[in-house]
Amino acid sequence: MIYLNALAVAAPADVADADELGPLLSFLHQFDFFAPVVDFFHITLNFRAEQPGLPEIFFATFVSFGLMSLIAALYKATFRGPNLSQDYVHTLMILGTVVTMIVMVVRGGSGEKAQATAFGMFAAFSIIRFRTDLSEARDIGFIFLAMAAGLAVGARQYGLALATTLVISAIIYAFSSANWFAPNRATHNLRVRVTNDINYDFAFKETFTKFLLMFDLLSVESIQAGMMTELRYTIILKPEFSPSELVSAIQQINGNNRVYLTSTSPNRTLSRV
Fold it and tell me: How far apart are CA 100 and CA 157, in angstroms?
């Protein structure tokens, strides 16, 4: 009789504990095999506490750093630009970890105070400006990914942070490896220097028609004290010709003066395969 009464008293506490575990630990709580794992997080790290203790703070910091390392490795693996910035990769790792610390500080308040601090932090992040230009638009996406993961860890949503970071990273790696939405033909920037005695409106017409699918004159600039003219074009090269063939043909017309050909897509090579 005493044993049954003890079970009746213990059962509600067990259920209450299960409700406090959170989505990830609640799922693991269903399997006896993961009981030590659940006990480690729920008892050793004391996830039930209203405010995170020192063990959980260390745990959250290491989790955040691990997720930031994964995001940084993903950025490096999928980067296709000409120059990989080590400083930017380090910034991703620092940014996410610092965001975790800030959110844990925000949670130090109670009720309305925590909400007010959270809105203030959001406003502060909204006015952040980078002193250096980002090389690619995708860099902004990685910044927001690092911040989101750091926010989730700081809010003690460890399962959410881990699951979403892994899924988003896998999606990014998949469409980067498959080269989704790549342009069918790469465009190039062409800069040609000619002497003033060359009528560039007609001099390159036949050559461009032969080698190019499309060309558009962007600018005409007088250089070298008015002794020469520099032309700037946007062009699309025909697939059967290589850039070197185009450059050689132009040099025969402009008297071996400077011809500068660059790709508008740094991840694409100018050489013909």
Answer: 11
H helices of the chain, in order, are 2-19, 23-29, 35-39, 54-78, 86-106, 112-126, 138-154, 158-177, 200-203, 205-211, 243-254
Domain-located, residue 80: yes
Q: How many CA atoms lie within 13 A of 77 on its CB side?
A: 14
* Mean pLDDT estimate for the chain: 76
pLDDT in tens, 219-254: 899 888 888 899 999 998 888 888 888 989 998 888
Gyration radius of the chain's alpha carbons: 30
Other Cβ atoms closer than 10 A to 148: 19
Judge if 117 and 74 occupy the same domain: yes
**Would you say 150 and 232 are in contact if contact means Cβ atoms under 8 Å apart?**
no
Strands 228-237 and 187-195: antiparallel
User: Of 153, 177, 201, which residue is a domain's last?
Assistant: 177
pLDDT tens-digit map of 49-65: 667 777 778 888 999 99
What residues make up the domain containing 252?
A: 187-263
Q: In this structure, what token pair is assigned to residue 14?
A: 């067990």
Under 8 Å between Cβ of 191 and 232: yes
